Amino acid sequence: MELGQILLPLAILLWGPKSAFVQAHAKESLNGQISYTLYGLGLLLLAITVVGLVVAVPLGLGLLVLMLWNMVRGALAAGRGEPYTYALILRLVP
Fold this sequence. Notes:
Helix content is 76%, strand content 0%.
């Protein structure tokens, strides 16, 4: 797992433009990336077992699809100037 996916939204949140729109998208992206990293770590722990590997691989592929879907949809919404809420994430950064 790389941390760049978390560091870039964090840097934008801390040092990027202070408009409410940019801040809202940065928080949403940061929450999403933290959530996906935690989900991935959970799947990695599940995959350690043989039975867990059978479950973890399809769930991991589903997580990848969900992650890409949310990132693309969020970027398209930001380009249109619209807010976007990621699906199935933890709201850790208020």
